[in-house]
């Protein structure tokens, strides 16, 4: 292994790979990305891939800005690498089933207008041709967001990596980080299972394991591993075309649907989210592509709602449940920026939104690191915002769970 690097990225998920690409593109060719498994084998591989610029009627502007960069990045990657980056702008629907949620959609439309996000409000009859296989008799209004869609995780990461390597970045898998040298109160080197890399700058993009990596440098990173599950149906007949089927969300039922390989992905939030701290001294994501046992009882209500919304699912078997770890913060907002330790940067805590935000975060931090002046002000994402309570695992866990329940 090389003895030195200008920057070391820890974590080979979509966020780390986006950072590698953007740092390389900015001219930092002497950058190394380290991943203890193969790329994406922490959380990225099991993500459903939704891309939405609007989190709700009170959605933050930073989310819209970061997610809004993804289409331009996908076009750039395709042009530079020749790879299909996996971005599918199929559009997204939000359905309202009650007067209260019709009002929510109106508020969402006003917020979208403020943020410059295209959004159209319609009645159920106006969207029937977009989703002819959905039951819409109880739908009172729908929001159509033409800029939404999904991204195929493997294709997106492959394109980012191809671009990063073309710009001179070194990608090293199967290398475990064992320590961070902070002699003199700043980052000096990264110790790994394959030797020591001297470096003045480390970016902790280790997802649910970001807390363990931060601890190696004596820095608290308040990221909580929490389980999230979604189901995948068997192939429908006729099969759904994922490149022509809009994504669909019903917020008041905490339900989402999207087409994938002729099947339907069914998911949503649960009222009793489950933290996934490993037992003993084990670290999150220590095993590659690890999933928890499906919680079929907790998933059953979502599958029932999905069958009500798409009646052919009642005659279709559930092929599998993906029950994996996602990384969350106490307020549900990612961590992105400098840590209190000179030379250590954080990019973690992107639970359920990593695919949508990864491109923008890679650009934002690469600009900040290389030029000192990022294009966007993202103070809401600064890692030190929680103060002293962040060092208490019970506090961070309970806050993260409370945020997910809302």
TrEMBL record:
Q: Which residues form the FAD dependent oxidoreductase domain?
A: 7-368
> EC number(s) of the enzyme?
1.-.-.-
Record Pfam families: DAO (PF01266)
Q: Which GO terms describe its molecular function?
A: oxidoreductase activity
PROSITE patterns xref list:
PROKAR_LIPOPROTEIN (PS51257)
Q: Which keywords describe this protein according to UniProt?
A: Oxidoreductase
Tell me the InterPro entries matching this sequence.
FAD-dep_OxRdtase, FAD/NAD-bd_sf
Q: Which SUPFAM superfamilies match?
A: FAD-linked reductases, C-terminal domain (SSF54373), FAD/NAD(P)-binding domain (SSF51905)
Q: What is this protein called?
A: NAD(P)/FAD-dependent oxidoreductase
């Amino acid at each position: 292994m090389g003895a030195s690097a200008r920057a070391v990225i820890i974590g080979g998920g979509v966020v780390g790979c986006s950072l590698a690409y953007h740092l390389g593109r900015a001219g930092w060719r002497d950058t190394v990305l380290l991943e203890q498994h193969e790329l994406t084998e922490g959380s990225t591989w099991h993500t459903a891939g939704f891309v939405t610029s609007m989190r709700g009627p009170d959605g933050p502007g930073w989310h819209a800005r970061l997610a809004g960069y993804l289409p331009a990045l996908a076009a750039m990657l395709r042009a530079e690498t020749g790879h299909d980056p996996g971005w599918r702008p199929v559009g997204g629907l939000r359905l309202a089933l009650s007067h209260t949620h019709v009002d929510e959609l109106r508020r969402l439309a006003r917020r979208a207008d403020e943020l410059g996000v295209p959004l159209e409000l319609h009645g159920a009859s106006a969207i029937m041709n977009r989703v002819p296989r959905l039951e819409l008799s109880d739908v009172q209004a729908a929001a159509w967001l033409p800029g939404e869609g999904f991204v195929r995780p493997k294709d997106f990461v492959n394109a980012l990596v191809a671009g990063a390597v073309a710009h001179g970045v070194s990608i090293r898998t199967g290398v475990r980080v064992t320590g961070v040298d902070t002699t003199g109160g700043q980052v000096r080197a990264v110790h790994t299972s394959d030797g020591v890399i001297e470096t003045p700058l480390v970016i902790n993009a280790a997802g649910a394991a970001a807390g363990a990596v931060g601890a190696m440098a004596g820095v608290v990173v308040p990221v909580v591993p929490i389980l999230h599950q979604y189901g995948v149906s068997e192939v429908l007949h006729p099969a759904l075309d994922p490149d022509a089927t809009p994504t669909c969300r019903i917020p008041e039922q905490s339900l989402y649907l999207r087409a994938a390989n002729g099947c339907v992905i069914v998911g949503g939030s649960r009222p009793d989210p489950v933290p996934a701290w490993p037992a003993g001294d084990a670290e999150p994501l220590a095993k590659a592509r690890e999933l928890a046992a499906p919680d079929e009882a907790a998933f059953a209500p979502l599958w029932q709602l999905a069958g009500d919304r798409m009646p052919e699912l009642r005659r279709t078997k559930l092929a599998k449940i993906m029950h994996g770890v996602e990384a969350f913060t106490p307020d549900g907002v990612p961590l992105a920026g400098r840590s209190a330790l000179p030379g250590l940067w954080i990019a973690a805590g992107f639970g359920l939104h990593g695919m949508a935000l990864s491109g923008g975060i890679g650009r934002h931090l690469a600009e900040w690191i290389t030029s000192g002046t990022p294009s966007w002000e993202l103070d809401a994402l600064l890692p030190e915002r929680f103060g002293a309570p962040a060092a208490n695992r019970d506090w961070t866990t309970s806050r993260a769970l409370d945020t997910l329940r809302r």
